């Protein structure tokens, strides 16, 4: 992303997966969200990571069939607004996924509510988008109470310019003060949020961006923040000849997750390692890299891509089902037939 913004002649086509392009604010969020679930800085009480699978199951149960298909996947988490009051101890109707020893206390409910909100400043300014509903399957690695190290390291060694190994120890007020310094200095010119892609687009450059809607590490909404920033810069004109974003339901960070996540994007693994991410067929209909090559060389704008879920997440077991990926804001809409076959879906904007 940085390359096409600063050096637009370097590439003719780019596939950018789950880009960490707003690095200053992503790093801040990685610290912030863990402050919310840490003993001394939580607004309520710490939620043990052992609870997150039950949380994922409850959220998925409530939002799974919004898309008309019961498959354990939330197609568009932006339409998922779960009522999680049934996870609380003493709830009138208790979730099937908790009991009296695993339910949330009133203070833990406060913590969960805080995690589910976008990060904002003390004055209400938007700072970063939070993780989406349906990403809870991966919170045991990203919302532990200990910040993901690249986030804290950024503030230690780039913003504060520490020259010896240190541990970041801040509260929310101090974190936001550090973020302000990062915004003002942008050490290393690391952010890649410039929406003016005219030099790249004008020479025929094509940008294919994708993000797993279930990404527990780099929240999926961060790609949509940039998408909207570009749309605003170009006065909401149709940019599909040059730029498309594909959101992948149920996919974690670049690969894995419970959804159909094999479409030839970045993060592919060798067959000997399970073949995660490898496309079902090596052609532009199924493979994002080949679709981008066709886009650049033949002018074929990608209208959809077929993605695959491998049985037991291993390519040697064959496909479990296929789904249709669509350029945002479109999504794969079930039109009838075999729910496990991508041909039963059509791209469209659900109303």
Automatic annotation (TrEMBL):
A single BP term in Gene Ontology: xylan catabolic process
Pfam families in alphabetical order: Tannase
Keywords: Carbohydrate metabolism, Disulfide bond, Hydrolase, Polysaccharide degradation, Serine esterase, Signal, Xylan degradation
Enzyme Commission number(s): 3.1.1.-
Top-level lineage group: Eukaryota
GO MF, one example: feruloyl esterase activity
Reactions it catalyzes: feruloyl-polysaccharide + H2O = ferulate + polysaccharide
Similarity-based family: Belongs to the tannase family.
PANTHER family: FERULOYL ESTERASE B-RELATED
This protein's name: Carboxylic ester hydrolase
Organism: Rhizoctonia solani
């Amino acid at each position: 992303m940085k390359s096409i913004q600063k050096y637009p002649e370097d590439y003719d086509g780019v596939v950018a997966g789950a880009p960490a392009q707003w690095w200053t604010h992503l790093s801040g969020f990685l610290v912030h969200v863990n402050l919310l679930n840490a003993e001394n800085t939580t607004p309520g009480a710490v939620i043990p990571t052992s609870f997150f699978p039950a949380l994922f199951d409850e959220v998925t149960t409530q939002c799974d069939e919004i898309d008309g298909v019961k498959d354990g996947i939330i197609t568009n988490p932006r339409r998922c607004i779960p009522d999680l009051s049934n996870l609380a101890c003493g709830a009138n109707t208790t979730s099937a996924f908790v009991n009296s020893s695993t339910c949330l206390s009133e203070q833990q409910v406060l913590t969960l509510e805080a995690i589910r909100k976008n990060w904002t400043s003390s004055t209400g300014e938007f700072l970063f988008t939070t993780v989406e509903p349906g990403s809870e399957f991966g919170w045991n690695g990203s919302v532990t109470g200990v910040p993901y190290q690249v986030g804290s390291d950024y503030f230690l060694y780039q913003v504060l310019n520490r020259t010896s190994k240190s541990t970041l120890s801040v509260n929310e007020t101090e974190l936001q003060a550090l973020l302000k310094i990062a915004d003002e200095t942008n050490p290393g010119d690391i952010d890649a949020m410039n929406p003016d892609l005219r030099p790249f687009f004008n020479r025929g450059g094509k940008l294919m961006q994708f993000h797993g809607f279930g990404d527990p590490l780099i929240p999926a909404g961060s790609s949509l923040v940039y998408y909207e920033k570009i749309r605003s810069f170009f006065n909401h004109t149709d940019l599909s000849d040059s730029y498309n974003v594909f959101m992948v339901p149920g996919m974690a960070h670049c690969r894995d997750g419970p959804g159909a996540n094999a479409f030839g994007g970045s993060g592919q693994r060798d067959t000997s390692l399970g073949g995660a991410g490898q496309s079902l067929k090596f052609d532009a209909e199924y493979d994002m890299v080949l679709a981008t090559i066709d886009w650049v060389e033949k002018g074929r704008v990608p209208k959809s891509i077929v993605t695959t879920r491998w049985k037991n997440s291993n390519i040697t077991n064959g496909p479990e089902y296929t789904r249709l990926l669509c350029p945002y804001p479109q999504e794969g809409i079930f039109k009838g037939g075999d729910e496990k076959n991508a041909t039963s879906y059509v791209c469209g904007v659900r109303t």
